[in-house]
Amino acid sequence: MIAKIEKINQESIHNGKEIIEKGGVVAFPTETVYGLGVSAYNGKGVSQVFEVKGRPNDNPLIVHIADISDVSLVTSNFTNLARTLLEHFAPGPITVVVDKGDKIADEVTAGLDSVGIRIPELQSARDFIKATKVPLAAPSANTSTRPSPTTAQAVFEDIGSKIPLILDGGACEVGIESTVVDCRFETPIILRSGKITREDIEKVWGSCDVATNTSTVRSPGVKYKHYSPSCKMLAMNTSNKVLVETTVNKLVKAGETVVLIGNETLKDTSFVEFINLGTTVDDFMKYYYEALRTGEKLGSIIVCVLPFTENHAEGLYNRVRKSCGGDIV
Ligand code: TXA
Ligand code: MG
User: Which CATH superfamily does the domain covering 232-324 fall into?
Assistant: First the structure.
């Protein structure tokens, strides 16, 4: 099989809908990253998604709907907290975890009795979901452990030989995955950070916790290797150009081909390929995964330089830590 890449429009949405109806999988754009969609009611179809991604089967998928009025298709216990957060942040890059409804296939939630619900902000994504007339279970459309895809081409690179259709909506605006929030208790608990921060949620609900690696309530997915380029990677938090140059020089002397990713001030650093991630936290999020995919083709090590602190950039820091499998120095 070789995937067709079709611009997302009425006609390609119709083609996608026909595949979903038969229990097949279709990659589609969202504002965060591309998703690999399948009917959340079709257990067999869902198993195919795990196979295509090489995803561990204890890691549940998020269910996507087109409108808040469709939540009853996914849960019969929509909490006041979940409603408040969706009413405030959706359509947008947030996923609320609530009790799983009976019709959702057990494969979607990997046996858990809870389910994640998301309403993407991208209009064409919602048009596609609406056309299928079912809630769509969709993980990010990458091979497990790889950076998530933010272009149709990146989806093709990873899984183009395993699926029939990729709906192309251009580059994703947000660039990292949604904030996942457990909404089954009194206080929201962030299970996976994203563009919507703890502070954003606190402003709406008054309180918000963040699950830690040691807490019992957490997202199964967080224990696996994630978002990693195929080459080595080092991450630094600094605005000190001299420090970056010293680090790069050491690596070059040791025989590495260095790809530097960071803001414009680093653009004339010697002996490196440079990829500009823009200036703001939002820019960095938007271009980050694509930079990893470009960088791994150009060099033996990616050096990622973050010029801002973790404050208001938790989602990005979380992805960068995972990508390099260690600390940001
Ligand atoms: O932005 C996004 O969320 C993208 C787009 C395609 O919507 N999707 C995405 O899906 O990132 P995926 O499968 O790559 O990541 C889903 C995350 C995993 O960490 C998973 O463990 C967690 O959400 N998750 C899903 N259902 C859950 C549940 N019932 N309880 C706890 N965590 C859950
Ligand atoms: Mg993923």
Answer: Threonylcarbamoyl-AMP synthase, C-terminal domain (3.40.50.11030)
Q: Where are the domains of the chain?
A: 4-210, 232-324
Confirm or reject: Cβ of 116 under 6 Å from ligand 1: yes
Confidence of residue 217 (pLDDT cuts 50, 70, 90): low
Q: Confirm or reject: Cβ of 278 under 6 Å from ligand 1.
A: no
- The CA-to-CA distance between both ends of the chain, in Å, stands at 43
Give the position of tokens 């549940």. 60
User: How many C-beta atoms surround the C-beta of residue 329 within 10 A?
Assistant: 11
Domain 4-210 has CATH 3.90.870.10: yes
Give me the amino acid identity at 191.
L
Indicate the angle between helix axes 198-205 and 80-89, nearest 10 degrees: 120
Pull the structure tokens for residue 246.
Answer: 């010293």
| pLDDT at residue 218, rounded to an integer | 67
Is residue 66 within 8 Å of residue 130, measured between CB atoms? Answer: yes
Residue 214: pLDDT band with limits 50, 70, 90: low
Query: Contact, 133 vs 44, CB < 8 A?
Result: no
The answer to whether 189 and 211 have CB atoms below 8 angstroms apart is yes
**Which atom of ligand 1 is the closest one to the Cα of 32?**
1
Residue closest via CA to ligand 1's atom 3 equals 178
Ligand nearest to the CA of 146: 2
DSSP at 248: H
Say if residues 313 and 328 touch (Cβ distance below 8 Å): no
> Which residue has its alpha carbon closest to ligand 1 atom 19?
221
3-class SS at 97? strand
> What is the reported pTM?
0.97
Q: Give the pLDDT mean for 117-145.
A: 98
138 lines ligand 1 (CB under 6 A): yes
